[in-house]
Amino acid sequence: MRKKQAKLHLSADQEVFMSSTLPACPKCQSVYVYQDQDMLICPECAHEWNPSEEVVDEDALLVKDANGTQLADGDKVTLIKDLKVKGSSLVLKIGTKATIKRLVDGDHNIDCKVDGAGDMMLKSEFVKKA
Hints:
Elements: H1 12-21, E1 34-36, E2 39-41, E3 48-49, E4 76-79, E5 83-84, E6 91-92, E7 97-103, E8 110-114, E9 118-122, E10 127-129
Antiparallel strand pairs: 1-2, 2-3, 4-7, 4-10, 5-6, 7-8, 8-9
């Protein structure tokens, strides 16, 4: 037994009209977006969003320092504790400054350049925003 599938046939004018008035889907960039009350819906990936609300990237990495301040790429941070560097006799002292190159997912979630020590990976719990 076969199920009947409904097909939507649009003329070229209607398709251009739809894509020129509604924004593309933020998830899959599909132009086949339709409106249902105040929500926009993408039939290809089933993403629903309200165009009047600010877009929040759910996949964005959220890293906070020891004080709970959100960190971003390019921020200057300061160490709040003496840290021993593994495989070296070097100790990073309290107050040492570093510049965040990028935030990464994992145990050591800050890839930064530490003044006087070079490039290193640090845990966000041992730094505060400068």
